[in-house]
Amino acid sequence: SSLPLWDWLAAARITPQKETETWPDALQMLREYALVALELVRKSAVLPAIYQFGDQFTVLWEPLWENPEIATVLEKLKGVSPGHLMKIKGDANERSHDAAAEHLLTVCVSAIICRICSNVSKYKQDDWLHRLFFSPGKGLPADGETRKTAQSVQLWLKKLRITRHRFVPVIKVDDQNYPSFTLSLAVRETEGSGLSEPIPLEDFKKDPRFAGERLPVYQNLMLLEQQFPDISYLINYDNPCVEYNPVSFEETLLQVLPVLQDLGIEILLPKALQALVKPKPALKVEQTASSSGGGWMDLQQLLSFNWKVSIGDTFLNEQEFFELVEGSSGIVKLRDRYVHVTGADLEKLRKSLEQPPSLSKNDQLRVLLAGEYQGTPILFSEEVKESIRQLMESGHAEPPSGLQATLRPYQVSGYQWMYHNTRLGFGSILADDMGLGKTLQAIALIQKLKEEEALKEKKVLIVVPTSLISNWLRELEQFAPGLSVFVYHGSSRNLGNLGDEDILITSYGILRSDNARLKKLKWRAMIIDESQNIKNPQSAQTKAVKSVPADTRIALSGTPVENRLSEYWSVFDYANKGLLGTATFFSKTFSKPIEESHDQHALGLFRKVTAPFVLRRLKSDKSIISDLPDKVENNHFCTLTSDQAALYQNVVDSVMKDIEESEGIERRGLVLKLINALKQICNHPVQYAKQGTPDPTDSGKTEMLYDLLDTIIDNREKTLIFTQYTEMAELLAGLLRERFDQEPLYLHGGLSRKNRDEQVEAFQHHRNRNIFILSLKAGGTGLNLTAASHVIHYDLWWNPAVETQATDRAYRIGQDKKVMVHRLISKGTMEEKIDAMIRSKKELAEMAVSTGENWIGELGDHELRQIVELGSG
Hints:
29 strands
């Protein structure tokens, strides 16, 4: 990489472990060292050391090697350091593997320290001492004057180093005479196997066996005097210990002993002191009466949220706590727990308990599900725990008798889960994989509501993309003929014609334009399909959808709802408004910690809060569905014709010149223009030229398509052909009409709903209609085309989610044949290179999910040219 070491370290830090598995061994190893180095700097567990390299002195920042914890971490690093990578060549001999590991960690620490300190304003860049300590590679000439300076600095630094000898110092803290704390010195022998018992210093002084070992121990102890002045009493006088009261012990425990530990001194603390805590305000949730088994709103009326004082996992009443700590300060023992108490902390705690945070109903539910509030665990009474458990468990609900379908086991559980949430007043996000029958599960729920007479006063509103209205009508008619439906769509739509129908179906566009009318009606349930249509919380469409009041809201989506957490929030906020807080609260509490810092605790809380309301099952999970046939994916590499190749390279040369001379928005626009032009050339030169008569022999991709279709048609099979370009779809329709003497079916966004339904019907049921061309946007969602056993992606949009969504028009429940997926890729072109990048790098795949091809516009000139240049293939 051409990145400076610091920039590489910063990038490596935020790259999740899973995404680095395809990195070369050297980069994976360097990332591990970078993470350890960053943690050492964060803990201030580093010290400078002077080195002489050739004719210069320089300073490198080293870990505190004397610290046993750091030594343990270093051993683990050595274990992930392949021997062939860990060699440092010197003037004559190669240094050992261990020395190489230590040096690499030192280099990483130094890079971080120098970057952090490079902008400290109080130092001048021309200050030679500043340059020595904080400018990597900026040494001082090893002449006479500098040598004296270096030696002085080295002597000063030696005061911070504990030399490892046969016996090392141990500091022992005793609390048996609380409120007094006693501190004593001992030594431990480091040689031999096993961990020897510490020898009290007074015994070590007197025992003649240790006469030759005392001087190095005393030298080490005297080095600690600057950090810990009291140590001189223990060394120079016959004092076996130093005593502290709770106030004076505070500084020793919290400031002095951690520094000594970093310097390599072993600290022995009583177990209770190791678990030192600060008092915090905390919630205790109790139930005032037995639950009647109703919904969440009923249970909330029975819950009391009382503020207590938390001491670790112990909770005290406010009055009891302040009585216990009255007049106390420092390190205080309360009920076998040590608490760090200061006057400022107590005053702050008192004020927070006098005016505790006010929790809304959504706040209450969120903290109950998370099990904590602002990092402090919540105390639940056993009765509350049992009530919540009963509330959140999906009970048994027989499928409705009027449903004309046999639900698969996972569909039964999905229906029961939605029904349970609906009864409790919660919304649901059913995010099953495409093709697992989300529509059927939703229809089962509506039929159940009908049979329970829950639709007499209020109806069900279904909002879908226009292309799915017919699909919903067909499935409602097939699976629930007892449900009456009113379609509110088209130019002649009239809400005045709405009678006693159970369901009103409309599109997102109509809901937006007729929002004022639709939100005046009473809805028992509102179901939105393809809920990614409201992923942008700021769009007018999303705001219109969320403004319609309904007792229960359900979102259906076959695509993952976690591509970006802000999009997740938008859909979840529709289903259960306010449960994840405002967008600002969600960003601060979940999005930023999870996406930027990979905070596992925040991720765990997020999953706890959302789990009851989101259900996702995958077709690939054989425990979910075992009778779906296989899907086999094949990449077909097509060779450009000579004319295609010449045109391709000419466009690269001319547009790259403009790109390299531009910047900002203009540059990104030119990059996307280039990518679009190259894709069109790979498809067929006539598509790029926008003129001429298409000849199949002018495009390697078109000839490959002919070869595939010859076999498919000879075998009397059916295929879907997807392209993202309407003009290419029209070219293909003409070419295939001429080649196979039949009219291919062609679905695009300009078709009426009736024409669209007729084409789907013809493909599914007419044996001789076996080619269906679809534009990616018009045909990518909602269609059930299980008559196809082949799916051909003529061109790729480099978005794995969109591609899978299109393929799943054929690969879904009802498919009884193996589905062959054919991806046409022009060899040696940017099509091949970008596809390989996306499939090998998960982070690029995720970028593509959210931004399509826009990420390519962020590449540098060199990287971009490498991608678009025509390769040898």
